[in-house]
Design goal:
The chain is built from five helices and eleven strands. The protein is α/β, with parallel strands linked by helices. The chain has one domain: Aminopeptidase, CATH 3.40.630. Strands 1-3-2-6-11-9-10 form a seven-stranded mixed beta sheet, with helices on both faces. The chain is globular.
């Protein structure tokens, strides 16, 4: 039986990398949820490139990381338990037969086996950091498909937030200053709508965070992952979030920035 999460990197420090959709794993007994095998390599099953990128960042910067060990089709770690797409019956127009008419007991079993242990692992890491006198900073990595529901998404990457934009706004400015990236602000999704993991473990506790979305075609090859490892590593160092740093560089301005460029 696979673990509901993977914990990597050295303990301690104040920065926690998080990958809600790192895995495309569906337990064998779920029979791929009735899907053909090729769908497991598709964006509907996981955030392409994020697992390799987070592992590379953890090694490069000496950071702790929690990666989900289950597909978002089994249960979506970045949705509240009462959200209609927590266990999706369709994704980007693809029906998920194994999620249709799911009985309450089966739904509860998925929460207890995958979703809750994953979130408990994140909470345990932030609790341990605070117990050492640190203020945890959360860095959540996602990737997005270049086209969704027939709509092109031109951004190379995007920063998401709900109410607390302290780090997201600074990160967007630093990435824009490179001059070679089209950076979305609350694009391709708004963090005011989809921000469950950061709302739960960040905003609810007053902890600063970044949610960085990267377009999947930019990190679907080893060369692409290496390039974005350099980009994100440089960003985190500039924000004071590398292992050697003692505290993040924070703005006191909590006023939300515009949602789009």
């Amino acid at each position: 039986m696979s673990a509901p999460f993977d914990l990597i990197g050295p303990a301690g420090g104040h920065v926690l990398l998080i990958a809600d959709h790192a895995s495309n794993h569906i337990p064998a007994e779920m029979k791929r949820l009735g899907l053909a095998p090729h769908w497991l390599d598709h964006h509907i099953a996981h955030d392409i490139g994020t697992a390799a990128l987070v592992r590379a960042l953890a090694a490069d910067l000496g950071l702790r990381a929690v990666l989900a060990g289950f597909s978002r089709l089994v249960v979506d770690a970045n949705r509240p338990e009462d959200h209609e797409s927590l266990i999706p019956q369709q994704s980007d127009g693809v029906a998920i037969p194994g999620n249709a008419d799911l009985r309450p007991a089966a739904r509860q079993a998925r929460l207890e086996r995958f979703y809750r242990p994953y979130h408990a692992a994140i909470a345990a890491q932030t609790d341990a950091m605070r117990a050492q006198g640190e203020t945890p900073v959360l860095v959540s990595l996602h990737s997005f498909t270049p086209v969704m529901d027939g709509q092109a998404r031109p951004w190379h990457c995007g920063l998401l937030w709900n109410r607390d934009d302290r780090l997201a706004r600074q990160a967007a400015e630093l990435l824009e200053a490179r001059g070679d990236l089209f950076v979305g602000r609350n694009q391709p999704y708004s963090g005011r709508i989809l921000n469950h993991t950061m709302d739960t473990h960040g905003e609810a506790h007053g902890l600063p965070y970044i949610t960085l979305e990267i377009r999947q075609d930019l990190i679907d090859t080893p060369a692409g992952i290496a390039r974005w490892q350099d980009i994100v590593s440089d960003l985190l160092r500039r924000l004071g979030l590398a292992r050697a740093e003692t505290a993040p560089i924070l703005s006191e301005n909590l006023t939300a920035a515009p949602d789009i460029l």
